[in-house]
Amino acid sequence: MEEKIMVNKVRIEIAGSRYVIATPEGEERVLSLGREIDAQVRQLMDGNDRVSLNDALVLCCLNYANAYKKSEESADNMRTQLTDYLEDATLARIELDETKRENERLKRRLEMLGGSEDGQTKL
Question: Which portions of this protein are annotated as coiled-coil regions (predicted)?
């Protein structure tokens, strides 16, 4: 059975232009993103009279692409660190198990040689 994905149609406005976005995301999230982009575009245009709407949109895209790449690199770095930590934990667990086995082997050997459990040698 095919799962049906709910699609919302959300109207946003960026620098006076209206857009209808079809998305599975919630309406408030899309509206929030639209407001954020609108504010950035307006700020770029207000800061320099020679920046066109198209220029401001391209600059916004570049800013978002840069932020996205940085977050991807950060996530990759965290995944690598987690993998390293898991490998270290696995090695520590193996060493612990080996130490426990060696401890048990030495206890049995001590018992065979006449030692008692309290560490005293019988005379």
Answer: 68-116
